[in-house]
Amino acid sequence: MAATLLPTLSPPVSRAAAFLLLRAPPKPLRTHHHLFRSLLSSASSPSTPATLRSLAPMASAATPDRRDLLMLGIETSCDDTAAAVVRGDGEILSQVVSSQADLLVKYGGVAPKMAEEAHSLAIDQVVQKALDDAHVSESDLSAVAVTVGPGLSLCLRVGVHKARTIAKAFGLPIVGVHHMEAHALVSRLVNKGLDFPFLALLISGGHNLLILAHNLGDYVQLGTTVDDAIGEAYDKSARWLGLDIRKGGGPALEELALEGDPNAIKFRVPMRQHKDCNFSYAGLKTQVRLAIESRNLRCTDGIPISSATAEDRQLRADIAASFQRVAVLHLEERCQRAVEWALKMKPSINNFEVLHQINMLGLA
């Protein structure tokens, strides 16, 4: 979502807490292929300034017209198998997701080996359905895009293997996509009026990033995660509170928080003494665990909230609400500082993008 920058940021939207779990540390953001640059530049859009057209040169004069470009995208970085077909002008022709929600519940989170097996079982059907829904075949494609990181290596290789198989069989180029860069740029597919520069907050189970996007492939990282990301804190807190996490720890905790008092427990806001844009949720996560244990809620015993008394449930709801208030406040404070920095570097900036990996069950 995009919002015009104001002197004070308004509170983030409430569903910003449903995240997938990513583990690998972020790598330098980089675009690997001219077709990917072309796809995300949206240079053919009437609302895009002419100056952008020079930012995504095609490889040669023989490259087809943008609308004739067809890209198959494959994503297996963590616990969902996904594929989509996108036209060169940004039109999304199809998108298919196979969820591993049941595995998340069974193993209490992402089990890499089990996730890899689930990807292997689903990948062929997911890709074929994406092609069928778009009414195209592999021979119609211009290229295959696939997530190459960050993510779980066991899971990533399933998608990469599928992409290589298709590319080899049909003589197609492969576009290696940096997961976090894609999140930063994908809003340009659906928001043709979003021009550079813009500030983006990327939040997930494994990463928090604040970046200033100057151009395609040109980013300044203003802040990152120094320990645990917000999604990790939400998921662990939800488990300790005995919540049903089949729809994700974020949505489950948020639902319980609606019943609680956000000021009941005075959790400390992380990193207030640090005058930078970095994020830290390890300390807040520890505060939640100590609050649960001090109230004899026996978080380590896995007592489900369905077995809780009315008084017990209210205590858990107060912890959830207090945690959520501080977790979002930390985001807000870091973003406010990033806005100040970004405006000094790029006074012309007027968009702030909040981009998060949404749990596909119910919140997409």
UniProtKB/TrEMBL annotation:
Q: Out of the domains of life, which is the source?
A: Eukaryota
Cite the InterPro entries for this sequence: ATPase_NBD, Gcp-like_dom, KAE1/TsaD, Peptidase_M22_CS
Name of the protein described by the UniProt record: N(6)-L-threonylcarbamoyladenine synthase
Q: Which residues form the signal peptide?
A: none
Residues of the Gcp-like domain = 91-341
Q: Which organism is it from?
A: Brachypodium distachyon (Purple false brome)
Q: Name one Pfam family in it.
A: TsaD
Chief subcellular location: mitochondrion
A Gene Ontology biological process noted in the UniProt record is:
tRNA threonylcarbamoyladenosine metabolic process
